[in-house]
Amino acid sequence: MLSAARMSLGRRAFSSSARSNVHVAVLGAAGGIGQPLSLLLKQNPLVTKLTLFDIRGSPGVAADLSHVNSPAEVIGYAPEQDGLKKALKGAEVIIIPAGMPRKPGMTRDDLFNTNASIVRDLAAAAAETAPNARIGIIANPVNSTVPIVAEVFKKAGVYDPKRLFGVTTLDVVRSSTFLSGLAGTAPKDTDVPVVGGHSGATIVPILSQTAEGKKIVEAGGEGLAALVKRIQFGGDEVVKAKDGAGSATLSMAYAGAEFTDAILRALNGEKDVTLCTYVESPLYADKGVTFFSSPVTLGSDGTVAKINPVGALHPTEEKLLEACLPDLAKNIAAGVKFVEANPPQ
Ligand SMILES: NC(=O)C1=CN([C@@H]2O[C@H](COP(=O)(O)OP(=O)(O)OC[C@H]3O[C@@H](n4cnc5c(N)ncnc54)[C@H](O)[C@@H]3O)[C@@H](O)[C@H]2O)C=CC1
Ligand SMILES: O=C([O-])CC(=O)C(=O)O
């Protein structure tokens, strides 16, 4: 079993010996997630340069953020005059929240038609201009958009699976919040690994691997079912409450900042930084699930060093995992097929 530090939540270790040259690019920076995420990254002392790109509004967001008195230089680029390339040039970490959010009644897969091509085109630009960057994909449906980026990078001949991540941190954040709320524990001490993918039944919280969660799993019944459902459908809860105005933005920005911070900390020399993230994975590849989220340990270059297995599961969690795999395999295949049929121009 892995240590409780696996999700790295609430454990910001800002070192005074921070590497002084980490350039982070945010694509989709003027959106509901992009703006607060960029604000949180501007506050991170491990970031020294922050470039913001969006099809609209990023120069304004950058001007605003540049008045915050933290070290990171912030520059916003519009699509004109090769703005995307300029935003990507020299980027070591690229975070992509560009894309349409859900409205009530939609599934994440309903976003595929719009977001697949947005992510494909941004990935093609990244493959050309910043092929060695670490890339975190927030845009939904994550289960498919991450394989899309992989296929685009393969076509460009620059794919390194160790550098590509799907951001599933919000599922870990939600699990920590919901479980600690029930157990009366401190959220920062309540780390729940969440494995699988990022939509409905593909989200598999492993509650039994925490002391508080184990009690709930062993008690079973409606209490367990309600907690698992809330974690798996936390996104729907926000979509419904926002009533047509989008999906989770602030909690996602927080989660995206935590995800990015994990990469920055690994780059800054912190050892054994481990977090659940959706990566190309051998764990269930024999079932067609070539991408899977499990606890991943980062190396000193902020890339995947070790993909850890899911660990011991309670029988109810084994069932959740069984239900996850076929859906995930379909979502991955859809992403691969999309790039085959619609290669980047
Ligand atoms: N991974 C996760 O856990 C989560 C993922 N999401 C997803 O994140 C995405 C963004 O959500 P929001 O920020 O709420 O949406 P939003 O609509 O507020 O912002 C999206 C931004 O992307 C920009 N954009 C669109 N096409 C672009 C392109 N080709 N290049 C650059 N920028 C482009 C838009 O101009 C807009 O500013 C959605 O797909 C949503 O489903 C949302 C919450 C959690
Ligand atoms: O639910 C959505 O569409 C946005 C999302 O991925 C989440 O909040 O987990």
Structure description:
- The chain is an alpha/beta fold and 345 residues long.
- The protein has a single domain, classed as 3-Layer(aba) Sandwich (Rossmann fold).
- Helix content is 42%, strand content 17%.
- It contains eleven helices and eleven strands.
- The chain has helices at 34-42, 58-65, 83-88, 112-129, 142-155, 169-183, 211-219, 221-232, 234-242, 250-267, 315-341, and strands at 23-27, 49-53, 73-77, 93-96, 134-137, 164-166, 194-196, 203-205, 274-284, 289-298, 304-307.
- The strands form three sheets. Strands 3-2-1-4-5-6 form a six-stranded parallel β-sheet, sandwiched between helices. The chain has a three-stranded antiparallel β-sheet with strand order 9-10-11.
- Helix 4 links the parallel strand 4 (93-96) and strand 5 (134-137).
- Helix 6 packs antiparallel against helix 8 (221-232).
- The longest helix is centred in the last third of the chain and has 27 residues, at 315-341.
- The model is unreliable at 1-18 (pLDDT under 50).
- Bound molecules: 1,4-dihydronicotinamide adenine dinucleotide and oxaloacetate ion.
- Residues 101-102, 108, 140, 170, 235, 238-239, 247-248 line the site of oxaloacetate ion (OAA).
- Substrate binds at residues 102, 108, 140, 174.
- Residues 168-338 form the Lactate/malate dehydrogenase C-terminal domain.
- Belongs to the LDH/MDH superfamily. MDH type 1 family.
